[in-house]
Amino acid sequence: MKLKLIATFAVTSLGALSILSQASAAPPKAKNDAAEKAAAPKPVPMPVFPGLKFGMSLEQIAKLNDKDLEGEFKKKFLAASPTQSLQVEDELRDKKAVFRRSRIDFLDTPTGIDQSALKGEYSYGNKESLARMPARTRDDGKELPARHFFFFNDKLWKIYEEYKLGPKSNLGTDFDSAVKKLAKVFGAEPQKVAADYAKGQNFDEAVWKDNDKIIRAVDRGDTLGIIFIERATQENLSKFRTKQVIDQHELDKDVKAATANPPVQAGPPPSEKDKKDAAAKKKK
């Protein structure tokens, strides 16, 4: 089958990291007491692919990925012999299938994702799902981060990217340096939010908001999470998560009762003789 190939195009997103090398041209915003205004970035393009939008289905995103991979493989096809072309085509087909096969549905049973840093980004029983693109190095040398796409009823509402921090990272060596660089890119200082395990927030975060997006930078030590979220969905989660969120790993209440420490039983009150003996010991 003859493949329809397209030219390689630039990825206009944080995923390419080119935006991080540019200081913001936006004028400084006037400071006031409203934290949201202080954390309002200039318009930020959606990450990963040109044309990517909230509300897209997994298959629509997969087709954007197909086009990007076709552009990446163009040189391989041009350099391949007729026999090698079949091998390149097989390799391309396998890479296209990775994203489609990665889908995980959050039904009523726990998944392995609960043991990862993504716990708290989804709920069970509310038609939520996840698809992933692993970190990899493109043939042109560009490093692509691991990316996680979250859906409600097969409609994209959140993208979670993972970047390694360190001496060679464009984002810096640690969370604080990454946040400073992102603040320059976005043209605004973030709102700092401390970890709150009771609310399901397991890491310290820096948060920006624009008209349609919430952007969260997540402190995971030597890994930085950058999350792009559809603001309208995030601010109305109760309408989408109608099923009560239950900790799938919490002990059953009967098990808790059976394994709980027994209450301490109070003994009889001391007699007059015991009181006199205790008083005598104190005098000694």
What features would you describe in this structure?
- The chain has 284 residues and is an alpha+beta fold.
- Strands 1-2-5-6-10-9-8-7 form an eight-stranded antiparallel sheet. A two-stranded antiparallel sheet has the order 3-4.
- β8 and β9 form a beta hairpin.
- The longest helix has 22 residues.
- The protein is elongated.
- The chain starts with 34 loop residues before the first helix and ends with a helix.
Please name the defining characteristics of this protein:
284 residues, two-stranded antiparallel ribbon, alpha+beta, elongated
Beginning-to-end CA distance, first to last residue: 102 Å
Residue runs with pLDDT of under 50 for 5 or more positions: 1-31
| Secondary-structure element series | HHHEEEEEEHEEEEHHHH
Main sheet: strand order = 1-2-5-6-10-9-8-7
Largest sheet composition: 8 strands, antiparallel
- Per DSSP E runs of 2 or more residues, the count of β-strands stands at 10
Number of helices: 8
Residues in helix, %: 25-40%
Query: Which structural class do you get from the secondary structure elements?
Result: alpha+beta
Mean pLDDT: 81
Radius of gyration: 27 Å
* Form type: elongated
The proportion of residues in beta strands is 15-25%
Topology (elements, then pairings):
Blueprint: H1 35-38, H2 58-79, H3 82-101, E1 104-106, E2 128-133, E3 136-137, E4 143-144, E5 146-152, E6 155-164, H4 175-186, E7 191-193, E8 205-209, E9 213-220, E10 223-230, H5 231-234, H6 237-240, H7 253-259, H8 272-283
Antiparallel strand pairs: 1-2, 2-5, 3-4, 5-6, 6-10, 7-8, 8-9, 9-10
